[in-house]
Amino acid sequence: MVVLTGSARIRFGVADVHSSDNNNASSLDDSDNTTSEEGGIEVNANAGDVFILPAGTAHKTFDTQPEASLKLLTPGDGHAVDLEGLETAGMELEGFTMMGAYPVGSEWDFAVGGESEGVYQRVWKVAKPERDPVLGEEKEGLCGLW
Prior knowledge:
Layout: E1 2-5, E2 7-12, E3 16-18, E4 25-29, E5 34-37, E6 41-46, E7 59-65, H1 83-89, E8 97-99, H2 120-124, H3 142-145
Antiparallel strand pairs: 1-8, 2-6, 2-7, 3-5, 4-5
């Protein structure tokens, strides 16, 4: 996951829950009246920051700057970006823009609020990537550390 423009806070490692559903909630996110489970980590993310997330890691972006309306750069099912289409449409990146990528051959899903609870075997079976998205095949990256 890479931040292309703007900045935001990103919470990693815990799911959101409705405040009435959980007695072990930590922080309140005023934007959608939910709380997060205890634990996890919050970081400030800025343009140029790259995050490598293990499969199944919960993450949520909030407090984006500058604020802008949500736009999807991926038409249809959200599995690809048509760069030529963006150029011909004259689309410019504005506000907070983040892009995620997955290893070739991977199939990603979008689970919300514990939808994949109890199916950890699927997450654990994710294959080692052939290349690190930043360092390629260098031993210092995923290829040497996985």
